[in-house]
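Why RNA polymerase sigma factor? Reviewers of the renewal asked for a concrete example.
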Amino acid sequence: MTAVAAGTAGTSEDLLTETYQAHYRSLLRLAALLLDDLSSCEDVVQEAFIRVHAARRRVREPEKTLAYLRQTVVNLSRSTLRRRILGLRLLPKPMPDMASAEEGAYDALERDQLKAALGGLQRRQREVLVLRYYVDMTEAQVADTLGISLGSVKAYGSRGLAALRVQMEAGQ
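Here is what the prediction returned.
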């Protein structure tokens, strides 16, 4: 009669202890397949046993205690992963590498010097260099855009770069 009474009252502590001793490692392996670190797996399995122990009187069929434990391990593993993903989303984004104020000032000076040097070039040389290096066109595209030959683009570009180099070196 005590076996019947224990069956109707839910899983006994003795049955839960036996299940723990017999199936702890298999439940740990199950958690290891779902999670990536051993400490989290151990935590999940321990928490599963604690939860099933707390709800043992509600287990209608004590022979299904292992099934309840497995399902609890799976659910707790999902929750652990969900918390990790949420935690990663909430982490502050790393700041992009930014130039220091000094570097920014030097870049601005160089840019101003380059603009001034470009202004000192012949019109065609300036056009060829801007289209070629700023707009990133090929020599053929520059020739087509300006309506000049490919050889002229090469000549204007070469002479313009040489003049630009001289002016930039003189400015420093």
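The mean pLDDT is 85. This is the kind of structural detail the renewal will allow us to pursue systematically.
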